[in-house]
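Membrane protein, Corynebacterium sphenisci DSM 44792. Tokens?
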Amino acid sequence: MTPDTTAKALAGLLLGAGALHMLRPEPFDSIVPDWAPGTARQATIVSGAAELAVGSMLARPATRRAGGWATAALMAAVFPGNIEMARQWRHRDWPQRAIAYGRLPLQLPLILGGLRVARAG
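Tokens:
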């Protein structure tokens, strides 16, 4: 996959996730760690807005490099939410556990994709 294709794929993913945070915040609220500042809803809205902003940066060639760096940082920043989801879902049915645990290693390719886009300029 070329850096351009990676940027477009990440942009689509982030724009979609950001929109979901705004339209259906409840599932995201439930996985905000207790130690996060503010309320769970505030964290959901802020992370959704960040996803929309970063996705928009990736979509525009003029801001793509900065968007790549921002993607890597954002994916690292939201990782505790994925850990919290895995912790909360550890007693659910195996398909739900597979989703929760499967999200953990998927964060690395997202971070590396952001770095790839950033380095390609």
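The two ends are 15 Å apart (CA to CA).
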